[in-house]
Specification:
Elements: E1 2-6, E2 12-16, E3 27-35, H1 38-46, E4 59-67, E5 79-82, H2 92-95, H3 105-108, E6 123-126, H4 129-132, E7 133-135, H5 142-145, H6 148-160, E8 168-172, H7 176-187, E9 192-196, H8 200-208, E10 213-215, H9 223-230, E11 236-241, H10 246-255, E12 256-264, H11 276-281, E13 285-288, H12 294-305, E14 315-320, H13 324-334, E15 340-344
Parallel strand pairs: 8-9, 8-11, 9-10, 11-12, 12-13, 14-15
Antiparallel strand pairs: 1-2, 3-4, 3-6, 3-15, 4-5, 5-7
The structure holds zinc ion (2 copies).
One zinc ion is lined by residues 87-88, 90-91, 93-94, 102-104.
Length: 345
C-alpha cells in the first residue's frame, strides 16, 4: 500500500509499505481522507524527534475494512472517524471522562507517536478500535467529518472555559481552530466577538464565521486600550488564544478584564516571560485546553448532522497522496487563504 512517511525536516516521501497485519483486538480502516494538521506542518518545517519513518496523519476518516474477532462496537463497512487522541479507557482520567488527558494517550495516538503510523496512507491500522473508532452519522459527509479534529478542539475550549452567554469574547488567530471557536461562541450566545488576525483574507473569514469585529493586531497602535474601549472600558470577559506564540499569549493577558479568563489552545515551547504580578494583580484566570474527548467528537458530529454547526469553507482543498508535499505542506506554509487541506489516498 501507498504511504507518505516523514524522513526529516522538509522531507516527506511517498513510498510502498506492506499492508498491515492485525491481531484479534485491532482493526484496519481504508482511508477516505486525512487532514494535514498544524502539528504536521510544524513537524515538516522544524522537525519532529524520533519520527523518522513515521506516517503522519491523525485527522482520519474512512471505512472499516477489517476487524479482529474480539473487537466490539464496530462493523465492517462502518464510516468512521479514527480518533480522538488515543485513550486507554482505564486510567484515572479516562474513568472521569477526561479521555483527552489519558495517561497513555500520546503513545496510542496515530500519526504522532513514534512507531504508531497514521492516516497519510491508503490504509491505517487501529490498535485500540474500541476507544478510537467513532461512527459517522449518515447525515454527515466524509468532507465534514475530516474536520472533526479541528472543530472539536474549538468546542472543547469553549466547554472547559468559563464562557457564559452574553460574554464579550476576543479570539486571537483566525485559522481553522480560531474560526471554529468564533462560530461556537456565536451560536452559544456571545454578546460580541472580536477576531485578531494579521491576514486580511482570514480577517474577512472571521466575520463570515460570526465575529462582530476583525482587527489586525499588527496595525493597532494600542490594542489593549482599543479592546478595553470596545468592552465598557475594562476589556473582554474571555480571550481564546489560538495563535500559540509567546507574543500572542502575552497580548491576550492584556485584553481581558480584571478577573477575566485567557484560554490557551496553543502549544508553544518558547517561554513567554509573564510576570506573576500581571496574573495576580488583575486576578486573571489562565485555562489550558488540550484536544477533546471522545464524547465531544460525537457531539460535534451531531451538531453537523443537525445543521447547527456549519463547516462553511474550512475544508479548502482535497489533494492526492502523491501531491502531499507540493500541493499540501508547501502550499500550507505560504498560502494563508488555505484553511484545511485533506489528502485522498
Ligand atoms: Zn490535528
Ligand atoms: Zn486513560
Amino acid at each position: 500500500m501507498k504511504v507518505a512517511a516523514y524522513e526529516g525536516i522538509r522531507n516527506i516521501r511517498v513510498q510502498e509499505r506492506a499492508y498491515p497485519v492485525i491481531s484479534p483486538t485491532e482493526a484496519i480502516v481504508k482511508v477516505k481522507y486525512c487532514g494535514i494538521c498544524g502539528t504536521d506542518l510544524h513537524s515538516f518545517l522544524v522537525g519532529r524527534q524520533n519520527a523518522n519513518g513515521l506516517v503522519f496523519g491523525h485527522e482520519v476518516v474512512g471505512t472499516v475494512v477489517e476487524l479482529g474477532e474480539k473487537v466490539k462496537g464496530s462493523n465492517i463497512g462502518d464510516r468512521v472517524v479514527v480518533g480522538p487522541s488515543g485513550s486507554c479507557g482505564e486510567c484515572f482520567y479516562c474513568l472521569r471522562g477526561q479521555t483527552n488527558l489519558c495517561l497513555h494517550g500520546h503513545e496510542r495516538t496515530i500519526g504522532l507517536s513514534p512507531g504508531v503510523d497514521g492516516g497519510m496512507a491508503e490504509y491505517v491500522k487501529v490498535a485500540y478500535p474500541e476507544n478510537m473508532l467513532i461512527k459517522i452519522p449518515n447525515a454527515v459527509s466524509f468532507e465534514d467529518a475530516v474536520l472533526m479534529d479541528t472543530i472539536t478542539v474549538a468546542f472543547h475550549a469553549l466547554r472547559v472555559s468559563s464562557f457564559c452567554a452574553g460574554d464579550n469574547v476576543v479570539v486571537t488567530g483566525a485559522g481553522p481552530i480560531g474560526l471554529s471557536v468564533i462560530e461556537f461562541a456565536k451560536i452559544s450566545g456571545a454578546r460580541h466577538i472580536t477576531a485578531l488576525q494579521p491576514s486580511p483574507v482570514r480577517r474577512k473569514m472571521a466575520l463570515e464565521f460570526g465575529a462582530d469585529a476583525s482587527l489586525n493586531p499588527r496595525e493597532e497602535k494600542d490594542l489593549t486600550n482599543k479592546i478595553a474601549a470596545m468592552y465598557g472600558g475594562i476589556g473582554a470577559e474571555i480571550c481564546f488564544e489560538c495563535v500559540g506564540t509567546p507574543e500572542a499569549f502575552l497580548t491576550s493577558l492584556t485584553l481581558v478584564r480584571k478577573s477575566g479568563q485567557v484560554v490557551t489552545l496553543g502549544s508553544s515551547r518558547q517561554p513567554a516571560g509573564v510576570l506573576e504580578s500581571q496574573i495576580t494583580g488583575r486576578e486573571i484566570d489562565i485555562k489550558g485546553s488540550r484536544v477533546y474527548t471522545r464524547e465531544e467528537i460525537k457531539m460535534c458530529l451531531d451538531f453537523i448532522a443537525q445543521g447547527r454547526f456549519v463547516t462553511k469553507n474550512i475544508l479548502s482543498d482535497i489533494i492526492s497522496l502523491d501531491d502531499i508535499v507540493e500541493r499540501g505542506f508547501k502550499r500550507l506554509e505560504t498560502d494563508k487563504t488555505l484553511l484545511k487541506v485533506a489528502i485522498a489516498p
